[in-house]
């Protein structure tokens, strides 16, 4: 781990993992709170490190201190949430590979608390090293294998780290102007501080540069559509929805955001776009047909309760209250509060 002033979350993190690791390596980049004291409670080996605005350098320094053959990398605002000890030991007992673990990011959306899942390379031989000043990646030719380790991450929930991250990302973009990944990442930072125009502009740059072979490409396209809605650049969205249906034919998130986009487009000019109304229903039904998936960047609910609820709203608006009740009831079965409220009003 690399840490700085993490006394609020560090105990939760270390408590979730300490029972099945041989050593804990913590690199501190200048804490002034109780971080080191908490680390000592878990017999962690703590090393001081002068921060240079380079996450890979700090990560690699931490890895250089490890004496174990394998390393599991966590951040202080994460914690393991499933019983995965046997899974970890099974993984490291086989041929060397890079273990990708599931991270569930908690964030605030306009509909309330939401959760996005991604798969990140965090379990690997300690000889591996990182590259990249920010959103650093393990550099290795070893195969990537998903491991049943699940971590919860709430470090960005109602918190902002943009003051730290945006200047680094701007520098990296200047050094790598053709790399869509960094435009994608800085767009996330802008979205977190409600800079919708900058989010849109960054994702437009990213979208223009992707090859569609990138693992994050589906998430990028979905987020670009959300940014188009939020920034009001609706005239650009329809072409993207039409162009990406083959590529994202199995993405519930894509059909979910496409339905949201079509509603905004129709409301912006009913005379021109009213013929698209039936596609809202079709897209939500397609999202439900696909269901919840393990796809990179998918938001939990777009293939289940959130789609049921939005479809219920659609039916309620067009006056089909029986179908609306059916959809709200299906969402209610997940405990989805907005649907429970709508049912009480109906």
Which keywords apply here?
10 strands; Glycosyltransferase 2-like domain-containing protein; TPR-like_helical_dom_sf; 48% helix; alpha/beta; three-stranded parallel β-sheet; 2 domains; 346 residues; Spore Coat Polysaccharide Biosynthesis Protein SpsA, Chain A; five-stranded mixed β-sheet; Nucleotide-diphossugar_trans; Glyco_trans_2-like
Brief account:
The protein has 346 residues and is α/β, with parallel strands linked by helices. The chain has 15 helices and 10 strands.
Task: Explain the overall architecture.
By secondary structure, the protein is α/β, with parallel strands linked by helices. It has 2 domains: 2-153, Spore Coat Polysaccharide Biosynthesis Protein SpsA, Chain A, CATH 3.90.550; 162-303, Tetratricopeptide repeat domain (Serine Threonine Protein Phosphatase 5, Tetratricopeptide repeat). It has helices spanning 10-17, 35-41, 55-64, 85-92, 162-175, 180-192, 196-209, 217-231, 237-243, 252-268, 270-273, 277-290, 305-317, 321-332, 337-345, and strands at 2-3, 25-28, 45-48, 70-72, 78-80, 98-109, 112-125, 129-131, 137-139, 144-153. α6 (180-192) packs antiparallel against α7 and α10 packs antiparallel against α12. The radius of gyration is 22 Å and the shape is globular. Residues 1-105 form the Glycosyltransferase 2-like domain. InterPro entries: Glyco_trans_2-like, Nucleotide-diphossugar_trans, TPR-like_helical_dom_sf.
């Amino acid at each position: 781990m690399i840490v700085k002033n993490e006394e609020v979350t560090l105990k939760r993190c270390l408590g979730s993992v300490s029972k099945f690791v041989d050593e804990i390596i913590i690199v501190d980049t200048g804490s002034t709170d109780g971080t080191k004291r908490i680390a000592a409670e878990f017999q962690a080996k703590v090393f001081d490190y002068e921060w240079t605005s380079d996450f890979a350098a700090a990560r690699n320094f931490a890895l250089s201190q490890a004496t174990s053959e394998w390393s599991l990398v966590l951040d202080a605002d994460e914690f393991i949430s499933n019983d995965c000890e046997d899974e970890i030991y099974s993984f490291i007992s086989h041929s060397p590979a890079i273990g990708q673990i599931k991270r569930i990011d908690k964030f605030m959306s306009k509909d309330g608390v939401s959760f996005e899942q991604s798969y990140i390379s965090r379990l690997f031989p300690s000889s591996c090293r990182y590259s990249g000043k920010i959103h650093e990646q393990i550099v290795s030719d070893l195969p990537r294998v998903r491991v049943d380790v699940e971590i919860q991450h709430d470090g960005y929930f109602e918190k902002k780290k943009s003051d730290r991250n945006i200047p680094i990302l701007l520098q990296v973009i200047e050094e790598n102007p053709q790399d869509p990944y960094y435009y994608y990442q800085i767009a996330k930072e802008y979205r977190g501080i409600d800079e919708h125009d900058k989010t849109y502009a960054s994702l437009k740059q990213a979208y223009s540069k992707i090859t569609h072979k990138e693992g994050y490409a589906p998430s990028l396209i979905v987020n670009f559509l959300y940014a188009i809605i939020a920034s009001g650049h609706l005239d650009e969205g329809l072409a993207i929805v039409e162009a990406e249906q083959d590529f994202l034919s199995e993405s519930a998130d894509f059909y979910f955001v496409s339905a949201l986009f079509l509603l905004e487009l129709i409301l912006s000019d009913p005379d021109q776009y009213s013929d698209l109304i039936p596609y809202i229903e079709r897209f939500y039904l397609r999202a439900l047909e696909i269901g919840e998936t393990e796809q990179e960047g998918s938001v939990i609910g777009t293939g289940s309760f959130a789609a049921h609820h939005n479809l219920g709203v659609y039916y309620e608006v067009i006056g089909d209250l029986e179908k609306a009740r059916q959809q709200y009831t299906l969402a209610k079965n997940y405990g989805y509060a907005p649907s429970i409220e709508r049912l009480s009003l109906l």
